[in-house]
Amino acid sequence: MRPNFEALIVIDVQNDFCPGGALAVAGGDAIVPAINALMGDFAVKVLTQDWHPADHASFAANHPGAAPFSMTEMPYGPQVLWPAHCIQGTHGAAFHGGLATDPADLIVRKGFRPAIDSYSAFFENDHETPTGLDGYLKSRGVTDLTLVGLATDFCVAYSAIDAAGLGYTVTVLESACRAIDLDGTLADARDRMRAAGVRLVA
Question: Is residue 50 classed as helix, strand or coil in its secondary structure?
C-alpha cells in the first residue's frame, strides 16, 4: 500500500469511450485490468465520469450543419464538436462493466453544465469553474496523484496539467491510458504535460 498522501485518479473509463461506444478510443477497454490491479495500492481512489445532458453545447448534433470533430468557438475558447456521448443515465455514460468501481472513495461527475465542456477532473473548460475535486483531495491530505484512464490526450492531459498547476506531484501512467490522437493531439498533449511538470511513465 502506498502512503496516504498518494491518490489514484481514474479518468472516464466509460462505455462510450470503449470499443463499440459513441466516441470509442482504440483499446480503451484493454486498460481495465491494469486499473483494477492498481486499486489495491492506493488509500485514496477517485473515479471521474463524463455526464452530459442531451443538449450539451459540445455535441455536433446540437449545431445544425456541423460535422463531428469540427471546431467551433465558445465563450471560453476553441471547442471540438464531438459526437453525442456519455449522456446522463444512458448505457454509454455508465462505467465499463469490468471496471472495479466499489473500491472508489469518490465519483466526480463532470460536463453536466449544458453550455460548457469539461475535460479536466478539476475545472470546467473555462479553467475557472471548479469540480470540487481539489478541495476533497486537500481535505484528505493528498499531495501526489497518479492518473490513468481515457483519453490520454484530452481528459487525462487536462486533468494532469490542472493538477500540477494546483501544486500536486503528478504522474501519468501511460500503460493504463489510451489516446484518441486527432491529428497529433497525443504528441502535443505529452509536450504540454511535460512542460507543466507532469511525469510520464510508460
Answer: strand
Instruction: Look up the pTM and report it.
Output: 0.96
**With contact defined as beta carbons under 8 Å apart, do 84 and 47 qualify?**
no
The helix or strand, by DSSP H or E, that contains position 195, with its residue range, turns out to be helix 185-195
What's residue 86's pLDDT? 98
Q: Is the confidence at residue 183, as pLDDT, over 90?
A: no
Q: Which candidate in 29, 50, 110, 177 is catalytic?
A: 110
Residue 110 annotated in active site: yes
- Tell which residue, 111, 114, 128, has the closest CA to residue 162: 128
* Cell digits of residue 192: 504540454
Exactly one of 12, 16, 29, 117 is catalytic; name it: 12
Q: Single out the catalytic residue among 18, 86, 155, 177.
A: 155
Distance of CA 83 to the CA centre of its chain: 17
Beta strands 77-80 and 106-110 are unpaired
Residue with cell 473509463: 13
Distance of CA 197 to the CA centre of its chain: 18
pLDDT (tens digit per residue) in 78-137: 999 999 999 999 999 999 999 999 999 999 999 999 999 999 999 999 999 999 999 999
